Amino acid sequence: MSSSRRCLWHHWLQVSTVQHSRYVAVETVACSFGAVHIISGIGLASSLCDLLHQMESILEDYVSATDLKQYEERYHEEMKRGDVDPKTQFEYAWCLVRSRYPADIRRGVMLMEDLFHHGNAEAKRDYLFYLAVGSTKLQEYSKALKFIKAFLHVEPANRQAQDLEATIKSRMKKEGIKGMAIVGGAALAVSGLVGLGIALAKR
To answer: Which domain, by its residues, includes 21?
Structure first.
């Protein structure tokens, strides 16, 4: 598993306490996809369908009021001190993205965008993934597709990102959204992310 994927799932498992086991199962399937396919004899289409259902269930997961309150209080305490730790901001943003309320999700996306622009450069890929999740939950599929394509521009073999991209496109198709949203999906990568990809590729 790449360091980016380990970081991605470390964050996911760290914040998502309510349905921890489900996320572990998703990671296991994603990381051993080839072996599962060969041993079980399940067709490729069926396996991909299962993974898409898993991604859908993740998108429909909601934060508990207890978790949201805990991370919100920690974030505001650090805000009062004038020094918010990026980890605290991320945890609060991810809780907001998992809210049932669009206003909360939008606030979470804004905090995640701030981390993307001002946070650790090595974590930018992870922030892009969560921005794609948040935008998908807001049904802003054009933005979600741009974010996930930018992520895949840097790490094209990432299974979770591939699954999320497929889920976004599936929802767009169901809702009749097409055209420039899909054709121009990689536009975000042009403004700075290409440079990030080149820098990461050299490591």
So the answer is: 3-59
